[in-house]
Amino acid sequence: MSSEKSKKLTPMMQQWHEIRAKLADDTLLMFRLGDFYEIFKQDAEWGAKLLGITLTHRHGMPMAGIPFHAADGYIQKLLDQGIKIAICDQVETPQPGKLVKRALTRIITPGTRLADTQIDAQRNHFLLSLSLGKKALNAAWLDLTTGEFFLASEVKPENLFAAFESLDPREIIVPENAAEQWSLPHTDQRFRELYTHIGDGRTISPIPDYHFDEAGGAQSVMEALGVMNLEGFGIDLNHPALGAAGALIHYATETLCAKPENLRKIKEYSSERTLLLDPATLRNLEIFKSAANTRQGSLLAAMDGTVTAPGARLIERWLCAPELDLDEIKRRQNCVGEFVTAPGLATELQNLAQRRARHRAHPQPPTKPDAQPPRARRRA
């Protein structure tokens, strides 16, 4: 922006330009003005069309706006279309005659949504990161709503892509330069087909390749988990997928405008420990969706008798990656056997789980201790 042009801008629009310049072109900026989020210039033309709201012009500049109190509904509508939204809020109390201070407080993307109104609590909402090494496909995936964090490296990419199909990631992070090559004819045809298939209908977010550096990724993961090393998780510091994991941490931090606070552990996924289900198998067996392409009538719907959101997510994960470890299979069978012989115990546990879930959703304020009598207070 030239100095001559900047002189013609109001202080508020200079503020908007400074914030907009930090964002990618595929991100729509909502700029807080009093009781509204305003959208300006190219964002206004784009946003008005996506949201079905009125586009106006002031001094030739396109504008559109939505009420602050109704923003959740509009944000959800954008997310459902795979659009990223940057929220710029007022961070101080407005004063007459003074430009109010504003700051970027959140970037909401399909893979980093957190609000209860934006997610289905009974399903995982994974953010997936991919990088292709010389010998293997490296990947990491993270659910910011639950803190579940995984990484994997696989010589046969098709094994991981089968797992991704079951995970159903909401957004995929890729190295921007490398990803451009993945769609070119010289890339392995099978990998190109798999990558194109998993990306179909999902948000693809390219970020600079250097965020996938393995050493930097290891450091980012340790800082996010609050540990000095990863030995306690059974992960070597030279694990090739730590670059992809570090890219996840970077992207999550950038979109949250803060470090993710709920990460406690990271697990290594191995295709050797689970039964791989390719897209055709998932579709033909109607595991997650019926022939009508709905959850109703699927195997998951028939089996899901859970009463809490974590339970629903767990049974979906078990169906996503059926266990091959015989000891674990027997352990689960023994658990089922115990509940079959003691059905009352299963009911008690269900009721307890429901009560705990309600308590977490609506925690009660701590009760205050009974006030002391006035005379006792004076003696104290």
Q: What would you note in describing this structure?
A:
With 380 residues, this protein is an alpha/beta fold. It folds into three domains: 10-108, DNA repair protein MutS, domain I (MutS, DNA mismatch repair protein, domain I, 3-Layer(aba) Sandwich), CATH 3.40.1170.10; 118-276, Nucleotidyltransferase, domain 5, CATH 3.30.420.110; 326-357. 41% of the residues lie in helices and 18% in strands. The protein has helices spanning 3-8, 11-20, 41-51, 71-80, 157-167, 176-182, 189-199, 214-225, 242-256, 279-284, 299-303, 309-320, 326-341, 343-361, 374-379, and strands spanning 27-33, 36-40, 56-58, 61-67, 84-90, 102-108, 126-132, 137-143, 148-154, 171-175, 203-207, 267-268. The strands form two sheets. It has a six-stranded mixed sheet, sandwiched between helices. It is globular. The N and C termini lie far apart (69 Å).
Features:
single chain, 380 residues, alpha/beta, MutS, DNA mismatch repair protein, domain I, Nucleotidyltransferase, domain 5, 3 domains, six-stranded mixed sheet, 15 helices, 18% strand, disordered N terminus, disordered C terminus
Topology, please?
Layout: H1 3-8, H2 11-20, E1 27-33, E2 36-40, H3 41-51, E3 56-58, E4 61-67, H4 71-80, E5 84-90, E6 102-108, E7 126-132, E8 137-143, E9 148-154, H5 157-167, E10 171-175, H6 176-182, H7 189-199, E11 203-207, H8 214-225, H9 242-256, E12 267-268, H10 279-284, H11 299-303, H12 309-320, H13 326-341, H14 343-361, H15 374-379
Parallel strand pairs: 1-5, 7-10, 9-12, 10-11
Antiparallel strand pairs: 1-2, 2-4, 3-4, 5-6, 7-8, 8-9
Helix pairs in contact: 5-7, 8-9, 13-14
